[in-house]
Amino acid sequence: MANSSxxxxxxxxxxxxxxxxxxxxxxxxxxxPGSEGFKNFIGTGWAERDETLPQARPQAANAAERRAKxxxxxxxxxxxxxxxxxxxxxNDTDYPYRAHSAFAHxxxxxxxxxxxxxxxLEPTGGAGxxxxxxxxxxxxxxxxxxxxxxxxxxFWIGPRPSLAHVAADLAVATRDIRDFDAVxxxxxxxxxxxxxxxxxxxxxxxxxxxxxxxxxxLSENAQDAAFSLEVGxxxxxxxxxxxxxxxxxxxxxxYEIAEMRAAIDATExxxxxxxxxxxxxxxxxxxxxxxxxxxATRARLDGNDVGYGSIAAAGPHATILHWTxxxxxxxxxDLVLLDAGVEMDSYYTADITRTFPVNGTFSPVQRQVYxxxxxxxxxxxxxxxxxxxxxxxxxxxMAVIARKTAEWGFLPVxxxxxxxxxxxxxxxxxVHGTSHHLGLDVxxxxxxxxxxxxxxxxxxxxxxxxxxxxxxxxDDLTVxxxxxxxxxxxEDDILVTADGAENLSVRIPRTVDAVEAWVQxxxx
Length: 524
Known about the structure:
This protein is an alpha+beta fold. It contains 16 helices and 17 strands. Helix 10 (254-276) runs antiparallel to helix 12 (287-302) and helix 13 runs antiparallel to helix 14 (391-407).
């Protein structure tokens, strides 16, 4: 069944009413019977549900520690962290659901999160907060929601958890979503919300804060007329909450590192399966789509999904940094740049790129470009250890890119001159950065302050990418014709250790000889 509309036909059928805000889309098309006899019949005769409560999942304890750190950063303030709701794709169909990363990080709830859930940290009388998870509990089998609500009814989307089940699973108190109204009623100017997670919840919190501010001014007979509240996308207190929960993810704990290793292992399998399908890939007019599909299958088998839109770029498409259309042919003699990662059910994702020759052998120019990029990647990796500044990783890679492009005669100045801040001519051939943090988001911790990110000191437990590249556009007249249309990127996922670094994705072939043997072995 491709969509969530009831399109069955029954001559005596009458439109059934449904509960909640999810009932509106295409309600006039419903043919679910509305007779009292049907309601009574469908609500009875069911086996007892298994109400056995689970043991707390392993990440529940980690999530509790993270909540404690957030609590310590915001004493006396109410914190609202929404999971976010379903997003409409078209008419009565939605995009696959994914909870907001801050919510997942602070609850331990991943791909089985309930849409529309909210985590509230309520300040206690003393220090600290009391955490409560609000979500829409499953409906009883005697309710119309159970069988007639296509958005949340179990007839349509499958079993949903009880409050008790989730409380045991995540080791956190739970309440029905309807009780969140009392939280909104209590909102004051000390209430903060993750604004981007759920626009509808953010709007409710904004309105409640404005109401509280206005009532305060009136109650004080305008003596505190200067008291006001400005809310909006740049509301600074909310921004501080977003920054803190983002920076909390910069250093990974043991559970997170284990999930990242699992994501990388699955991604390695996906890359190998793509190479095994090269005969089919090259036979199809849109061979890039086959690459995308083969990898996506592995992602769905081993995890939740792909961590981001896979880049399956063959030939000149490899010079387009975010090529996700993936509708081109894969031609022997060209290179394929495959940038993809498996996202686990916990939402932790790999992000790996390999560039390989379709026919199993690099041409001399392809080899020249590839080895330059590999040298840049190795130079960046060589300096990684606790205590260096994150931006130094990029600088190490850029020193190689500048030197190589200068040696090849592509720059109007020397490599040393090009590296000066006011020049940067070599960046024409690599406009992106070399590294970004990685974890729950493919570009993790993106709202962290600059002094903790680009200018931050690297610590053990951080995971980030190293991904230099060289991209010579097909119509770039600053390079010889034989370079045009060649794009190469090598991307690995790096764990900072106590005394250095570990390349978590090093098992995926990355030297010229190893890549050629990898492709040739898969084709044989």
